Predict the structure.
Amino acid sequence: MAESAVSQPAALNSDLVPAKKKRSNAARKPLAQKNAAADDESNGTPSPGKAVDPVAVKEVIQPSPKAVKQTKASKKTTKQTSASSFEKDLLEMQERLEKLRLEKERTEELLKEKDEILKSKEEELEARGKKQEQLQVELKKLQKLKEFKPTMNFPIAQQSKDKDNDSKKKKGGSETKRPSAPYILWCKDQWAEVKKENPDADFKETSIILGAKWKTVSAEEKKPYEEQYQSDKEAYLKIVAKEKREKAAMKLFDEENKQKTAMEFYEQYMQFLQEAETGNKKAKKEKDPLKPKKPMLAYFIYSNERRPALMGQSKSVLEISKITGEEWKTMSERKKKPYEEMAKKNKEKYLAEMEEYTKKKAEEELNQKTEEEEMLKIQKQEALQLLKKKEKTDNIIKKTKEDKQKKKQAKEGKAEVDPNKPKKPASSYILFSKEARKNLQEERPGVNNATLSALISVKWKEITDEEKQRWNDKAAQAMDAYKKEMEEYKKSAASSSVNEG
């Protein structure tokens, strides 16, 4: 083991230690002589020319056993120390190699991770680039869509409808007012007299006085107001019915027009897309050629006059504008005067032309408005015709449905409700409400049904138990009568069925 251990480091050292330089033969001879002399001295052989000690020679020739043992022990220890030192060196080298291997593996792993990160980032950048390209394409499309401006005109019926809605919003309701109740009409006539009699009374007090006075008015005095109310009501209902019919007709007409406008819009949009694909730019809106142009200022008149001379001197546009501007600033009022007078005349001429132009425009607008009104009338007639057709078809459908229902009922043999069958009597609250309603209508004429029903329910809660009992008794009597009538009805129905059988 020791020999192998020694041999391995020796081999390693031989690899690591650099090779010795070769010496020449001339240099070797004196060294050989020196080495030979040293060997002779160590072996005890005297060199020529020296005296030899006999005792020393004897010691050299015959060494003592103790010295021999010591030399052997020293050799062994040297061998052991050299072997152990080589083993240590070898272990250290192995540890270093292991560390280097681990470091190499780590660096390789780190490099792999970095490569993966770089790849993922490259992929992200590519994806972002693609997304950006898509967004740019979409943005271009949207920018093109902004340029799309449809030239179609919306139907007149729709425009008029919008105007009517706006006017109603401003006024706060429809133009047709509900007819005033007889009490309100009477109050309008009597208001001035009551105010004369009670000048200090406020609105609430005067209304209370009028309410009390209305109760004392006879039926004959109320009659003209009631007749007026009825006539107003009939007229109002006619107007409302006409308006409803017209609205229904116009709604139908609008639906048809909407379909037409939608088709026009679609066609224009498709045409716009084709033009956008081919790259043809849409022409800008032309200005009104009849509209007079604005007049030039005095400075611009001067600059137009001065420009040809400066252009002859091969001056640029910027230079010309600078020169003319400086000249105009330094120019005296006397020299400026003719240009200012010219500008003034041009302005007066422009204002006169603009006045004529605005008048013509106003006339055109009026004519257009009258045309629109005429067209609206025609459209209303067309709409009414459409409505009539629709009503006819609806009536036919309704009749067919009713006929089918009747046939079905006839097949199923459903009996119709007998008109001779006695009706169920009203409850105590219903009986009370009928009477209370009459009284309230006399006290508060013109009040709607919702408020009346609310007041009746409040009164029913406020009445005493005795009064409620009175109404309960009336309801009970009506129920007893109903039961008797039902018994008689059943008997008569049974006898009639027997007779038929």
User: Anything to note?
Assistant: The first helix runs from residue 2 to 16.
